[in-house]
Write a structure and sequence with these properties.
The complex is a heterodimer of chains A (113) and B (116). In chain A, 0% of the residues lie in helices and 56% in strands. With 113 residues, chain A is mainly beta. Chain A has one domain: Immunoglobulins (Immunoglobulin-like, Sandwich), CATH 2.60.40. Chain B has one domain: Sandwich (Immunoglobulin-like). Chain B is built from no helices and 12 strands. In chain B, strand 8 and strand 9 form a beta hairpin. Chain B is globular and about 40 Å long. Classes of the chains: A mainly beta (113), B mainly beta (116). The interface between A and B is medium-sized, with 24 and 23 residues.
């Protein structure tokens, strides 16, 4: 069983579209994250949720909206996609908020044309 | 504000040779330090972490790192690399001051290329 799974693995779409990326963890962790990795492999946190509560909200355009229906899921919805949104998006989880080990999903490669 | 600098973007090395990947950080508070590895087309995996105690930290796959507070460094080492160690390596820092949110700040990454 995959610990942190995200779907889809690849997402190709046109500018202006709305898309979602789903993430699920089966580790029983309290905290989940979304990270963005750009073309230069620079990795930056976008959001984190602890028990469905938003903890971290970095300077991210409000076109990006995370949704956590329960603590095992953290989905990322993106409205009005732009070329600059093209990146690899990683979901991650940790046992609790703090400085615990992060478990990462295998990433979603988003390409906006 | 914290930051992490990985001094080498690419490190080519021959198989069975030793390797050191350099990482420096800046922070006004005490920190936790991490090294993560990313194999091609995969997510990141934790190699090792320094929270407190002994400054020499041993991780998985034969890697180790040494925390040097005076030099604000946390360099990663392996005495003998394998082809399978070819990957992207990320150094990261997290504060544990007030308002700790567990946010990790990552360095730019170092590509380790192990040649036969």
């Amino acid at each position: 069983d995959t610990a942190v799974s995200q779907t889809p693995k690849y997402l190709v779409t046109q500018m202006g579209n709305d898309k979602s990326i789903k993430c699920e963890q089966n580790l029983g962790h309290d905290t989940m994250y979304w990270y963005k990795q750009d073309s230069k492999k620079f990795l930056k946190i976008m959001f984190s949720y602890n028990n469905k509560e938003l903890i971290i909200n970095e300077t991210v355009p409000n076109r990006f909206s995370p949704k956590s229906p329960d603590k095992a899921h953290l989905n990322l919805h993106i409205n009005s996609l732009e070329l600059g949104d093209s990146a690899v998006y990683f979901c991650a989880s940790s046992q609790r908020t703090g400085n615990e080990k992060l478990f990462f999903g295998s990433g979603t490669q988003l390409s906006v044309l | 504000a914290q930051s992490v600098t990985q001094l080498d973007s690419q490190v080519p090395v021959f198989e069975e040779a030793p390797v050191e990947l350099r990482c420096n950080y800046s922070s006004s508070v005490s920190v936790y330090l991490f090294w993560y590895v990313q194999y091609p087309n995969q997510g990141l995996q934790l190699l090792l972490k320094y929270l407190s105690g002994s400054t020499l930290v041993k991780g998985i796959n034969g890697f180790e790192a040494e925390f040097n507070k005076s030099q604000t460094s946390f360099h990663l080492r392996k005495p003998s690399v394998h082809i399978s160690d070819t990957a992207e390596y990320f150094c990261a820092v997290s504060d544990y001051g007030s308002g700790n949110t567990g946010k990790l700040i990552f360095g730019q990454g170092t590509t380790l290329q192990v040649k036969p």
